[in-house]
Structure formats: C-alpha cells, structure tokens
Amino acid sequence: MKTFSLWCDYLENSFLDGEFMELLNLGIINGATTNPAIFKNAILNSSAYKERLSKLSTKDKKQRYESLAIEDIQKAADKLALNYLKGDDGFISMEIDPRLHSNTALSIGEAKRLKSLVARDNLMVKIPATKASYEAMYELMKEGTNVNATLIFSYEQSVKCFEALNLGLKDFRKKNKGLKEPKAVISVFVSRFDRLLNSRVLEKNKLGIYLASFAYHYIKEQNEPNIKTLFASTGVKGDDLPKDYYIKELLFRECINTAPLDAIEAVKGKKLEFKEPLSLEELHQKLEQNISKDELDEASKFLLDDGLKLFCEAYEDILYAL
Fold first, then answer.
1. What is the pLDDT averaged over residues 44-60?
2. What predicted TM-score, i.e. pTM, was given to this entire model?
C-alpha cells in the first residue's frame, strides 16, 4: 500500500467508464468502497440499470440486486487490477447483506458466497463490526479473504476488530507460507460523530477526528502492514466546512481515507501534506475538555445502531423496488 491512499466512496456503472478512470489514471484514487446506501442510490436513480434489469430472468429480488451489484463490483475490480498487482491497493469493497449482522455463521456463509460470485482477488468483503462479526472476521482472514471491518464508532470496536483480523492473519500464515496474504482495513467513521455532537461540545467538527486518531495510534502501534486504518464517513454536510476538510485533517501516514466524490474533486490538483496526529496524552485532554465518557459511549452505541438500521433499510428499499 502507498504511504497514504484515497479510495472513492461511490460506485455507479457508467461512472466507472468515465470519471472513475480519470481519477484512477491521474493517481488520485487507488481503491473504491460500496455499501447498500451507495447501491440504492445508483440502482434506483441511474438509467444505466434499467436495461440490465429488463434482461434478468430471475424474479428473486435478492438475486436481481446481486446480479447488478456484482457486475459493477467486477467491473471496478478489473479496472483496479493493475494497482492491485503492483501492490498499490486496488481494492473494491462489497458489503454482505447487513441484515445478517447479528448472526456469525450466516455472515461467514454470505461472505464466502459473495467472494465466490465476484471471483476477483482484489475484492474486500465488508463486514459490520458487531459482536457477532469478530469471529466472522477471524474465519475469513484465516481462509485468505480480504476484509473491510466497517461501522466502527468506538475504540473498543477498533481493538476487537484488529485482534480478530490479526489472529486470522497469523493462522493463515501458519498454513499458507508463500501464498499471497489477505489484507484488511478497519473503517473508523468520522463525520457522523461531529454531526451528532457538535451542539454539545466546545470544539466543533473536531471530536470525530480525535476519536479516529485514537484508533489510528492503536492500529499503527501494532506494526502489522496488512491491517490498516481506514477513515470513513469523511464527507461534510452543508457549507460550513470545505469539502476536503476531513481528508486534510486526517492525512496521516500509512492510512486510507475513503471519501465521496465532492471531497475527492476538492483535492484534485492540490498538493497534499501529511499531518501528525495529536499524541495520546493530547487526545485524552481534548476528549476530557469536550465530552464525558458516558456521553461518548452513548453516542457510539447510537451511531452503530443507526448505521446498521440505515444500511438495512437501504438494502430493503432496493429489494422492494426490484
């Protein structure tokens, strides 16, 4: 992986042939991510899918959705293949059915099934970081599957994800010496904290950065190059902040930032400079000045529950429309 990576948090079939390739060829992005909300927006609002839908023989709604989504994932994977072969990321993430987030066995089975259907080495299977998912992350890494651990809103989630992924990676190495090793990212969500808590803290639009920095410190200190911190939810709402605010504020070494198109457009052509995260001591001081532990724990739980709900609703909306 590069010292810093920027992945596109957007996917749509016609976009892949146009602006996506431009950003990729310019070296601005070197990976991409998806989630049910992204596919909902693409499939239900883009004319690119209507003809493809009309040609599908199956009436099963989930199969219809997966047929469209997997075709896009494969297309993106093929366009990112050169990056992947050069070791310059080149990953595309696809999330399992989010409705399975509380069932370990079904999550593992779903991840394996999607991996088989996509059949691309640079696929990252995206798994929500719930209590039931840590074992799934371990099993998938142990078998050589690239994993994107997502919807992380707490330091505890970051630690548990790393422990599960790292144990799986170690077990993979024991039995598969010489084979290409799986990689993983731990996707720490940022801006949703600020949108939720700005009215209750002294420093606006900083809390998400402080919390993400804690996770970054922990993951970097583990010194495992196959498991990286990924900063997610880095788009801004409204006009009070520059579109690239979170990209610039979290431009740390050896990490990944996944951003929406408007944020990526905002950094295009600019010279980005690395930042050093605040020290752990400084971060603890900042948190104590802004929010209590109980308030933070409550916000983390709310945001995780809300994120799961939104992804499940987006998934259901797609199926209902198909």
1. 89
2. 0.96
